[in-house]
Design goal:
Mean pLDDT: 97
Number of strands: 23
Number of helices: 2
Radius of gyration: 18 Å
Helix content: under 10%
Structural class: mainly beta
């Protein structure tokens, strides 16, 4: 375990299991959904802590897909038959210094080698998480990057975006104006069973509030390759995922079709 702590914030990372944020403790309160036994991350990697998604986020098709002279043939790892959340969420990461981790990936159906890095910094009541994705191949690589934290409930959420993809699991979903339960521009409890992507958020992108803990936070995100906010609120999990990502679901298809919010080449 690698611990970064200053003032009221403590972050605990597990380099051997995807460089994952295992704990985010703020003013003595645990904000992430974490298992009592960290080996649970290997059994069910998608529903605990906060993990990096790279070289793509969310879902892409697990079917042979030509990209220039290369063919992507990534395997299925989700019950819906797609390839979910990239390749590095459970890989062993290297500790580069007391607050920086990195991992090299590629292969297993992804033709390009790459490196992903994560750096944690704390200053007062501000936690900064810097991420990068670097193509190590000689040819252009489609890429995406994000972070997937599960925040404990009860939680109130505000997402400052006027447009949304209503379903992350529907490959044909189109961007539409927010309305009804998908309009989260006012702080409040997030409805159960949402799994959607809000595009082009404002600044700050997200506000969070834990009413029982007396804690609130502002989430700002900057990216050189686009930005969207994904929220997932399955009713059978005592947490809500609020994810900053550089692209929307089906990012590879969107890139190849020339659509907005795709992977970045």
């Amino acid at each position: 375990r690698l611990t970064v702590a200053e003032g009221p914030i403590l972050v605990e990372l597990l380099p051997e299991v995807g460089g994952r944020l295992h704990r985010l403790c703020v003013f003595g309160q645990e904000l992430l959904r974490t298992p009592d036994d960290p080996t649970e991350y290997r059994r069910r990697p998608f529903h605990w802590g906060a993990y990096v998604m790279a070289p793509w986020c969310n879902r892409i098709d697990a079917a042979p897909t030509a990209v220039g002279d290369e063919v992507v043939r990534v395997p299925v790892n989700s019950a819906d038959g797609t390839a979910l959340h990239g390749q590095v969420y459970a890989s062993p990461w290297e500790v580069r210094d007391e607050a920086t981790l990195s991992v090299r990936g590629g292969g297993n159906g992804w033709p390009w080698p790459y490196e992903s890095s994560l750096r944690v910094g704390i200053a007062g009541t501000m936690l900064t998480i810097e991420q990068s994705l670097t193509n190590l191949a000689d040819t252009p690589m489609p890429g995406g990057l994000g972070l997937h934290p599960w925040f404990r409930r009860p939680l109130e959420v505000e997402i400052s975006a006027a447009s949304v993809l209503a379903s992350n699991t529907d490959a044909g979903a189109e961007i539409e104006p927010v309305s009804g339960t998908l309009d989260l521009r006012t702080m409040g409890p997030i409805p159960d069973d949402l799994d959607a992507a809000w595009v082009d958020p404002g600044d700050p992108a997200v506000r969070l509030r834990w009413p029982m803990l007396g804690i609130r936070c502002v989430l700002r995100a900057r990216s050189e390759a686009g930005l969207c906010i994904v929220a997932a609120s399955p009713r059978d999990i005592d947490a809500v995922a609020i994810e900053a990502q550089t692209h929307a679901p089906q990012g590879l298809r969107r890139l190849l079709a020339g659509e907005p919010h795709g992977l970045h080449l």
